[in-house]
Amino acid sequence: MEPPLIIDIITTEHLAVSPDCLLSEAIVKMHDSKATCVMVVIDNKPEGIITESDTVGLLVESYQGVCWKELTVKHVMTYPVIAASFDLNVMEAIIIAQGGNIRHIPVTDDKGELVAVANQTELVKALVTYCRQGDLW
User: Fold this and answer.
1) What is the largest CA-CA distance in the chain?
2) Given this model, what pLDDT does residue 107 score?
3) Minimal CA–CA distance to 14: which of 119, 126, 125, 91?
4) CATH 1.10.15.40 given to domain 6-133
5) Which of 19, 63, 117, 120 has the lowest CB atom count within 10 Å?
6) Cis peptide, bond prior to residue 106, ω within 30 of zero
7) Where are the domains of the chain?
């Protein structure tokens, strides 16, 4: 039994903004959607990412005099992003995540366009299910 493909275990719902979006707007979108990240895209191709931990870091910086309310996401996004092709399996995606020390992986199609965002929780759940079904656990 082969591990499931990454595209088969993730939802295609994700937040995306342009690099010129105000950071405060991106944070409000994350909060309203209860999302843990927002992708920064140009022509539907992932350029960067803003995560919850990024926003916590910005909060700390604001107490040190940095005014982030007027910043756009391109000023604070993590880039370049490490993306996974939609046809990778879960094991390969976990290896990419661990190698890059990342918790969110943009999933792209064969044109490099954003299809979804896989998170660490989804990947681990899929791996555990795969191992249990194959009697590997």
Assistant:
1) 55
2) 95
3) 119
4) no
5) 63
6) no
7) 6-133
